[in-house]
Amino acid sequence: MGRVIDVCAALALCAFGLAASASAQQMTGGDGQRTITVSGQGQVNAVPDMAEISVGVSGQAINARDAFGIVNNTMQAVLGRLADLGIEPRDIQTRDLRVQPEYAREPSATREIIGYTARNTAVVRVRNIALLGDVIDAAIGAEANEFFGIQFSLQNPESLEDQARVEAVMQAHSKARVYAEAAGVTLGAVLSIREGGTSVQRPNQFALARSAEAIATGEVGVSVGVTVVYAIE
């Protein structure tokens, strides 16, 4: 009986030792790998080929119906002028439409309503930058009286995004080489690349211009950020 117990104990110890040895080898071969993690940023600038402008009409009247009618008629005239310039309906979107009461300035218990103000604002996308000055002139000529700035952008930023990706990876690789050399190690293969997202930097400008020459388009920037993990050999 004593021998049986001794043999069982010996077998259990051997099994425990084998399991511990296998566990140690797994930790060393997998999770113990040394790495260098760096980030890179790439940006490519280009002249914009599209713009968006917010055009609005506001008006006042004694009653809400008349105020809305004034604004609606004026906006219809604005849209007609834009259509004459070739702006398609898909590139015009109503952004704000409201009617609100106006109260007497003198404080009173009843807050007397003295009239109504109506407002209609539309965002106009101009796909031909050369027409931007004409679009503004047409809107002003049709008695649009509110402008909320110009936003420049790109119609097809995909090719620029790819260029920015290449620059981002090259910058990350340059950083990794510097770190590896400073640490006295050899840089290994790329283990992973993770993109942090893309963005288009659009400069906002406000303009009430009577000619296209008065509008400065500048440049827009397309940027991409990446995180790259390298193995250390």
From TrEMBL:
Keyword Nucleus: no
Pfam families listed in its UniProt record: SIMPL
GO BP: DNA damage response
Domain of life: Bacteria
InterPro entries in the record: 26kDa_periplasmic_antigen, SIMPL/DUF541
Keyword vocabulary terms for this entry: Signal
Record PANTHER family: PERIPLASMIC IMMUNOGENIC PROTEIN (PTHR34387:SF1), SLR1258 PROTEIN (PTHR34387)
Signal peptide segment: 1-24
The protein's name in its UniProt record: 26 kDa periplasmic immunogenic protein
Species classification: Bacteria, Pseudomonadati, Pseudomonadota, Alphaproteobacteria, Rhodobacterales
